[in-house]
Amino acid sequence: MDESELAALRTMYVFGPAEDSTWNLTYDLVASKLRERNPETFVSLDEKDQGPVLGSVMHFGFTLGEETLEGMAKLSPEGITIEDASAHTAAVFVQWLRGNIVPAGTSVSFNTEWGLEDGLPDTLVPAAPRPRLVASFLAHLENVEAMSD
Fold first, then answer.
1. Is 54 exposed, middle or buried (CB count within 10 Å of its CB: 0-12, 13-18, 19+)?
2. How many Å separate Cα 68 from the centre of its chain?
């Protein structure tokens, strides 16, 4: 598959703190930062049967241009996903995460739905400009594709 085909692929990207670290994530923080970005954004907390934290998931919308993506935040395991995203969209999203959710100096790891299915380990997101982030995500997709062959 060539780079333009890889760039068009859409999957779920999973972002979380690097091993042995934390973002001290709270649903209030995520909701407030999403609403600062767009006061009309969709935010919903699914509490399941275990109360407001244990087993809960926050669902949200994230608008980029004319496109609204859906995402999820969890406190355990700690992380935030963006669904049905291209490598470019994931790069924009992770830059927003770093600027709004992730504490300064804390590393971010990522994987994709396909990488998780294939047993690929999480990878650190480079502290780099958007083109390098996109290249990192495309390299991950290339690796997933190679494992599937």
1. exposed
2. 14
